[in-house]
Amino acid sequence: MRSPKLFLLGAIPALITTVLFIASLVALLLNIDTLVAWMSPFAEGWDETWRAALRVALGVAVVAASVMLMVVAFSTITLAIGSPFYDLIAQDVERRLGDAPPEAEEPLPAMVWRVVRQALGMIAVSLLVTIVLFFCGFIPLVGQTVVPVVAALIGGWLIAIELVGSAFDRRGLMRIKQRRAHLGRHRLRTLGFAVPAYLLLAIPLLSIVVFPAATAGATVLARQVLGEPDGRPRKAEPLP
């Protein structure tokens, strides 16, 4: 909030992605009855009470799985759309905290290919996890208690890997394996930041405000897990 121009720039890509995802979610909700009926033709001959109970549970599971996938994909797509803006936010945080590293040199074609490859990989992992949790959601009690907690933990972890990307890339740590290794040494600290970020990003419209702040917070987190200074922010210098 001390850099309102950067904050607004960071909100624009999140706003674009939010509009697209809200439209997708509304379309899903409007067609959920048709979708769950298509997914459970075997229940047509069941008693009406049991058929309705199954389809309500199936509808809840479909929506919950879709939201989890959307939250992680939201970060991936928003970062891809607004990469220059979020780099500026990360640079501003680095400058405030001091000892900011120089930009890592990487040819543009190589950088684009790396970013696309990593984004597709993250979405594929998110989809796989979503499918597993979707089916686990049908297990009595476990599906209503354990699965949402596991979804928040895994979703938060994936989002943390996404959000620290800019700070890690600046230090030449450009592989997702390197991000996982460093964050894994500070797992509780990482999840303490990432799970609330995941839950807040799951709330439509609020995510527009959260995303620029989460980008700044992830830069601080990256410095902490890398053992760099992360003390009290200095007065920001005006951006060129």
From TrEMBL:
Biological process (GO), any one: sulfate assimilation
Subcellular location: Membrane
UniProt keywords, alphabetically: Amino-acid biosynthesis, Cell inner membrane, Cell membrane, Membrane, Sulfate transport, Transmembrane, Transmembrane helix, Transport
Annotated membrane topology: Multi-pass membrane protein
InterPro entries per the UniProt record, alphabetical: CysZ-like, CysZ/EI24
Gene Ontology CC entries for this record: plasma membrane
GO molecular function: high-affinity sulfate:proton symporter activity
Transmembrane stretches, start-end: 7-32, 52-81, 119-140, 146-168, 188-211
Protein name in UniProt: CysZ protein
Species whose genome carries this gene: Allonocardiopsis opalescens
